[in-house]
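Subject: two folds for Thursday's group meeting

Dear M.,

Sorry for the delay on this. The cluster queue was jammed most of the week, so I only got both jobs back this morning. I'm pasting them in the order they finished. Each block is the input sequence followed by the predicted structure tokens. Could you check whether the formatting survives your parser before we put anything on slides? The first protein is the one we discussed after the seminar.
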Amino acid sequence: MRLLRALGWVLVVLLTVLITVRWAGWDRITPFIQAMVFVPYLALASLLGTLVLFAGGRRRLGFFMVLVTIAYGAALLPRWAVGPESRPKGYTLRVMTVNLNAGSADAKALVQRIAAVKPDILAVQELTPGEAGALGKAGIGRYLPANVLRPAGGRTGTGLYAQGALTGGHLSGTTSSLARARMSVGSVSLDLVSVHTRTPMLGHTVADWTHDLDALPTPKDPGTQLLLGDFNGTQDNVAFRNLERDGYQDAAIAVGAGLKPTYTKWPVPPTPVDHVLTEGRVHAYRISAYDLGGTSHRILVADLAVG
């Protein structure tokens, strides 16, 4: 019995500390940055803990856990409270993004998905020279003939493919080589970036991750920004939320799909680390995701209206 009471107190303290860190934006160091990925699952733990406390007659602690559960719920509510939207007025644009797992993703399967989904833009991360060649052999050029590619060995290469004309470039000052391009949609000039940040694990990788996020374009920059890719962060990381504070909108949040996981590899629970961020005259109205062999990241597809 004493052991159960002690474990109960540990759970209460842990849940309280982590939701406090989340709301206060104190997740800037290890292990709090990494722990934020568990927030949606800790919300369920807090609810279960509340029920157990009341069932065990511990009413005061139970009422406290009710407040903790509400705090978790408030953090999650904006991610699913909005329903799918009808298509807004403007040009339609379908964008796709996927992390290719250091060139290990199934290139043929990806091109088959492109043929079925018919995106206007594809952003890829962890693009190696070999994977770029495999995509070319699989026929990606038949569907997305324009490209701006910055392949590299390991996990630092990225690329952009499109149906329309691209004016190529790159974003400097980040740990990965980020492909960047301009594309016109009607009267709107889109500034596209295939985003891949460092994974914040231990030591200097945390500083690299924060630096990568800070180096991304802001809505104040010329053109209309559209960021697609693997941000290695979620809505529970203050560094990622700062992008929204600057004026970006997460396409998945806009349509109530903010809890849809895009990464599934142990020991990380299924979690949304891949995002499409819009601003200004670009609005999301539908989100979908598909599995792809050879990578733990899912293909994320967003339907946008531009205008």
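Second protein, same layout:
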Amino acid sequence: MIIAANFKTNHTRASAKEYISFVNEYLTKEKDVEVIIFPTATALDNYETNPNLTIGTQNAYSVNKGSFTGEIGTQQLDEFDIKTILIGHSERRHILGESQEEIAKKYAFYKELGYKIVYCIGEPLEVKEQGLEQTLEYIYDQFVGIDTNYENLILAYEPVWAIGTGVTATTEDIKSVHSVIKSKIDKPLLYGGSVKVENVAQICSLDGVDGALIGTASWVKEDFVQILENIKGL
């Protein structure tokens, strides 16, 4: 089971350090789960962590270094031995305007460097309302230019209409999409979208769900550890 925490634009360097230390202490005793934490770029650091806790970056440009104001590249990531990256998150697609072409370029760049890639896919509400066939067609378009055979790939299905809204997809919604994706791509597949303490066990127990990518509910360290407690044994 893989549980990932996406801090988005939350936490400081100090609070991220405290958070990671707290979770790492828990994982000293609980070793049957893989945890990935994506802090803000300003909180990336050389953290001492258990083997089942990985620190990743929420975003980076497809470059080692250069004249790209506001971006970070592998020169900055290498300083902290970061080798895990989140690519294709809906907020970067829909709010920050990353095109599929740009996302595919970034994917190819970090794939060539051997990074573990958590690759996000998902549909907006207007697509979901058109039915499963249209939803899957929309999702398939998000695989254009993406090598799904890459050995270090983790997928995350995040319906856009469920992210940060408090609305979680029904078990049937999740199972129907996950089952089709899993039948075509043999990679770990996480679910994301208003996953929280109360529903994480139910979601992660569904066939085709290999874990969760969690935003809001992961920002309080005690809640995140409770989430890890709740999926023990799955």
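Two things I noticed about the second structure. DSSP finds nine helices and eight strands in the chain. The first strand starts at residue 2 and ends at 6.

Cheers,
T.
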